[in-house]
């Protein structure tokens, strides 16, 4: 026991000596040497000793920042020939702050007697209270220099200042947020997403939602796409689908979540996809896209009547939805072809007059939807109606209308 106590005592003296030696180098202005000298004491010794070591490191960086800051002020004078090193100034500022936070964390840990007696907290609070603006400016400087790593480092430091041990107990009235605080939260989220740090993008997007409801759309955009792009496994995708569905149910008027759900269900088995579509229709009977998706699903399985019924439900909600009108016409045409094959006399390979009229009734239905498509989309910007419409005129024996279309597009005759 005595031997162990002797080792601990000698170790404590050794750590104190390291800090003292580094302090002497710092006082002489030998900053780089002082930084190297204090490093062994940063993670060794008691909490009190580590707090002292980190605090000294913070002072060294702060002094280097101050020197560059003074040069920056002087360089603004017309007669000055000095030029500040902005990279050094902002880098030393963030290094000083991060070291101060580490010092404060150790400074608030119980000493060997179990008591908390912080030595540096008050000085740290006073020294760095105005650094928020500096970090915001520094982040912008590095962002303009395309140094995203440093930009996000300073911006995150700014946003998180009030959550560190240094300021977490300080009343908001004593440390109010700057008017641009929410902007920096947004930049943290947006830049994290750009850098593919999706977890941080989510964290800061969520923070933006909490602190600035007016930027809800921006925050939700980043949040949802960060979650999507962070999907690595089937379990991740299932969890993301669950998240999307929860958000969609909470706000049925927001198309963002439903559109992403469409993408997520795109590669599902047909039965699973249709089950989801039916769930969506039950949830929101006014969702025209859900009916359109159901129509497409039925088209894919050649269930023409069911497809037509689904498209018509969508058109009840949006009567001029061109793509849906076009698809309805295609379904009627396909239904007519299927009916023709079904009613055809297998011996003569023809249709009776009665059966031919049955097919023409369906073709006329197809024609009415295709002509409506032409009326709403005359330049075929949304659909390619010319050939299907031409074939319908051909099937119904309307040579005059065929000639009209041929004049517009001679390739239809081929």
Number of strands: 0
How helical, in percent, are the residues? over 70%
How many strands, what sense, and barrel or not for the largest sheet? Answer: none
Could you say which overall geometry the principal axes of the C-alpha atoms support? elongated
Low-confidence stretches: 1-10
Overall pLDDT level: 91
| Beta content | under 5%
Q: Return the structural class.
A: mainly alpha
Radius of gyration: 36 Å
Give a written overview of the molecule:
The structure is a single chain. Helix content is 71%, strand content 0%. It is built from 19 helices and no strands. 32% of the residues are buried.
Write the layout of secondary structure elements.
Blueprint: H1 2-27, H2 31-38, H3 47-75, H4 86-107, H5 121-128, H6 131-144, H7 148-160, H8 181-194, H9 198-211, H10 216-229, H11 234-250, H12 255-264, H13 270-283, H14 288-300, H15 304-317, H16 322-343, H17 353-376, H18 386-395, H19 399-408
Key terms:
414 residues; mainly alpha; 19 helices; 71% helix; elongated; disordered N terminus
């Amino acid at each position: 026991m005595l031997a162990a106590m002797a080792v601990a005592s000698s170790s404590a003296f050794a750590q104190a000596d390291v800090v003292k030696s580094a302090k002497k180098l710092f006082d002489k202005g030998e900053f780089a040497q002082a930084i190297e000298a204090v490093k062994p004491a940063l993670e060794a010794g008691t909490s009190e000793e580590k707090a002292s070591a980190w605090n000294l490191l913070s002072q060294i960086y702060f002094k280097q920042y101050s020197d560059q800051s003074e040069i920056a002020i002087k360089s603004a004078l017309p007669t000055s020939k000095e030029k500040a090193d902005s990279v050094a100034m902002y880098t030393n500022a963030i290094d000083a702050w991060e070291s101060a936070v580490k010092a404060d964390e150790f400074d608030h840990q119980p000493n060997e007697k179990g008591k908390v007696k912080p030595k540096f907290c008050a000085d740290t609070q006073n020294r760095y209270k105005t650094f928020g603006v500096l970090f915001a400016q520094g982040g912008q400087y590095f962002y303009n220099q395309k140094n995203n790593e440093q930009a996000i480092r300073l911006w995150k430091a700014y946003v998180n200042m009030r959550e560190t041990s240094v300021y977490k107990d300080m009343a908001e009235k004593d440390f109010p947020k700057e008017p641009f605080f929410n902007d920096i939260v947004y930049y943290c989220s947006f830049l994290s997403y750009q850098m593919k740090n999706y977890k941080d993008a989510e964290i800061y997007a969520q923070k933006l939602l909490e602190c600035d409801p007016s930027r809800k759309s921006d925050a939700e955009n980043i949040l949802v796409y960060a979650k999507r792009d962070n999907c690595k496994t089937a379990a991740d995708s299932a969890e993301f689908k669950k998240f999307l569905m929860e958000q969609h149910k909470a706000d049925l008027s927001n198309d963002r979540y439903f559109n992403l759900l469409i993408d997520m269900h795109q590669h599902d088995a047909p039965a699973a996809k249709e089950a989801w579509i039916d769930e969506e229709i039950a949830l929101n009977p006014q969702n025209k896209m859900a009916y359109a998706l159901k129509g497409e699903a039925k088209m894919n399985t050649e269930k023409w009547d069911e497809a037509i019924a689904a498209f018509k439900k969508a058109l009840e909600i949006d009567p001029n939805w061109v793509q849906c009108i076009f698809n309805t016409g295609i379904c009627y045409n396909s239904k007519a072809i299927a009916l023709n094959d079904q009613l055809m006399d297998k011996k003569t390979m023809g249709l009776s007059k009665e059966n031919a009229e049955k097919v023409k009734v369906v073709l006329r239905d197809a024609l009415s939807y295709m002509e409506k498509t032409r009326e709403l989309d005359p330049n075929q910007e949304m659909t390619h109606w010319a050939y299907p419409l031409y074939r319908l005129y051909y099937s119904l024996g309307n040579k005059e209308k065929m000639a009209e279309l041929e004049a517009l597009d001679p390739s239809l005759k081929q």
